[in-house]
Every structure is written in C-alpha cells, then in structure tokens.
Design a protein that fits this description.
By secondary structure, the protein is an alpha/beta fold. It has a single domain (3-228), classed as Bira Bifunctional Protein, Domain 2 (BirA Bifunctional Protein, domain 2, 2-Layer Sandwich), CATH 3.30.930.10. It has helices spanning 15-34, 70-75, 112-129, 199-203, 209-224, and strands at residues 3-13, 44-51, 54-57, 79-82, 89-92, 96-102, 135-137, 140-145, 154-164, 167-175, 195-196, 226-228. Strands 1, 2, 6, 7, 8, 9, 10, 11 and 12 form a 9-stranded mixed sheet that branches. A 3-stranded mixed sheet has the order 4-3-5, with no helix packed on it.
Length: 229
C-alpha cells in the first residue's frame, strides 16, 4: 500500500528551530502510537531544509572531532550542537539538502537497517541522474563515491537518525553546492583520512539546487513506495 508523506521545503532555517520542530512531530506520532485507539493515525512527514552553518555531534560522537574551540567557532559564525542522533560530527550549511523524514516505519518496514539502506538508495538514484555512481562503504553509513579505491574515497551524503517506537527523526545531508572548506575544521563523521565532496565539485559546475530537490523527491517516492503531498 502506497503511503502518504506530507512534504515541506522549509528554506534556510537555523538548526535549533528545525530540531525543535522535528521533536514536536515525533512526540505527536509517539503519543498516537501509545494509544491503541489512535496507533494507526500517525502522519508521515518529510522536510527539506538548508541550515545556517552548524556542526552537529551525534550522541556517541567525540567533541575532539571538532578542531576549533568555542571562541573560533563564534568568530567564524558556526553554531555547534551535541544532539540525540546516531553518528559522529557533521556539517550543515547553505546549498546542502538536509532531509528530515518523520516516518512511522510500522507503515513502511520496521527495520532500521532497511531504512538506512533505503535513504542511501534515494541518494544513489539521484546521483545516477547526474551521471555519478554513488555507492556504500562497508560499515559506514552514508553515500560515497569510489569507496573501495584507497585514497579516492569521498563522501557526498552523511546520515544519522533517531528512532522512537519506530518513528524516525534526523536524517541526511546531501552536498550540492556546499562550501567544503567547513569540513576542514572537523573530522567528518569521525572518519580519518577520507575526503568529502559535493555534486558541484564532482561535475565541475554550479547545480540548480531546486532541480536536485525535485529529483530527490521523485526518488523518495520510488524507493519508499510513497506519495509526497
């Protein structure tokens, strides 16, 4: 059965504002599931957003993977949050598609491995439309280019999620025309000696981010067998 997902592009927003928004929708769905009479009334959402420059550290991440002190972060206008998703440190900023699915996996498939692989697949399909072969790196969540060629591995999409009663939040960060200099100040995803890339860098041209969003939305519908409204 095809699921309905309510989609909204939030534009450019501060990180904390959208984190709080996700928490509201997560709680609404968790509360619905806690009541037998309303457990099937949960609502699926997908938000796209571009954040102001911010580093976020996952719950089990290491603060030392941020290579700048608090004063320097402030000088550079970069926010920092230690948050409740999986994964380590990553960067969010303008010209990057950050996606936050608030999905009830009981309505899709209650399997986190399946969910993460499906998020990756939506990105991989989108990259293919630009003539790039996205791939997975064994033991490392996200989407990569040339993950099996030593010295050439480059990550183009980072992922980290939280799940409560099979309701998801947080999600992925897909580098489109992202300023990659920000990644020089962290150990991205806690992984040493591997590069970060963007669609712009790989193709050698500026990408229409709205076009990329439309392609990604279409591939979400295919991979998750859903309809975005």
């Amino acid at each position: 059965m095809k699921q309905t997902v309510f989609f909204k592009d939030l534009g450019v927003r501060p990180y904390k504002e959208v984190w709080d928004l996700q928490e509201v929708f997560l709680k609404q769905n968790v509360d619905l599931k806690a009541n037998e009479a309303t457990r099937n009334a949960t609502v699926n959402h997908l938000f796209f957003v571009e954040h102001n420059p911010v580093y976020t550290l996952g719950k089990s991440g290491k603060k030392e993977h941020v290579l700048l002190n608090d004063e320097t972060l402030k000088e550079k206008g970069i926010e920092y949050f230690h948050i409740n998703r999986g994964g380590d440190i990553t960067f969010h900023g303008p010209e990057q598609i950050v996606g936050y699915p608030i999905f009830d996996l009981d309505k899709f498939k209650p399997d986190l491995t399946w969910y993460l692989r499906s998020l990756e697949e939506a990105i991989i399909k989108t990259l293919a439309e630009y003539g790039l072969q996205g791939d997975r790196s064994k033991g490392e969540t996200g989407v990569w280019l040339d993950p099996n060629i030593a010295g050439k591995e480059r990550k183009i999409c980072a992922m980290g999620i939280k799940c409560s009663r099979w309701i998801t939040m947080h999600g992925f960060a897909f580098n489109i025309n992202t300023n990659l200099d920000y990644f020089n100040y962290i150990v991205p995803c806690g992984i040493q000696n591997k590069q970060v890339t963007s669609l712009q860098k790989e193709l050698g041209r500026h990408i229409d981010i709205n076009e990329a969003k439309e392609k990604l939305k279409k591939n979400f519908e295919i991979v998750f067998n859903c309809e975005l409204k």
